[in-house]
Amino acid sequence: MPYSQRGFTLIEIALVLVIIGLLLGGMLKGQELIVQARIKNIISDMNSISVAAYTYQDRYRALPGDERDVSRRWSNETGGNGDGVICGAYNGGGTGGVACNSATESVLVWRHLRQAGLLTGSVEGGIPQNAAGGLIGIQNGAFGLAGHVVCVSNLPAKIAAAIDSQLDDGLPQSGSVRAIRQGAPNPAAEAGLPVDTGYLDDGGQTYLLCKTL
User: Which residues have C-beta within 8 Å of that of residue 102, sequence separation ≥ 6?
Assistant: First the structure.
């Protein structure tokens, strides 16, 4: 008796391909929604930090992190040197984009804002993370930007470019939002201008982005 082997019909193969296409399309759409959510979250956090810092300054006539006599308001809380500059780097190390007297005020700023109820989170929480897994911090001066800036690190190129486009001119070298390619996680935000004229979205490049406070 001859052996008969039944294969897939063209209709069955087409149905399988359609299902695979729908699954892949759903996965890609889901990934894009996650990216967009992270972009919105980071922009919201940067704006909220700016509002919180200015509200603190209006309320207490001093900058968070830099205010000297905070222990009068919150027992045993550490104050800054009161020189009108939030000293230290956004990532808590070094002295930031300009010379200053202390490397701790950029960490104290988060304690002061949380003590004042202007940001959520534990007073002992330290420098917060952004939605891309890097840090979000404040320092004085970076990438040719004068005054205090908010910096976010470890941003994939796609997210960094979208934030720059939504808040500024979309170019890492110019405007009130500037960025550099990272060679390591949470790098220093130096005073020199960025060299890149655009964002390199090669799937693995990350950026440190700073905007004026």
Answer: 80, 81, 87, 88
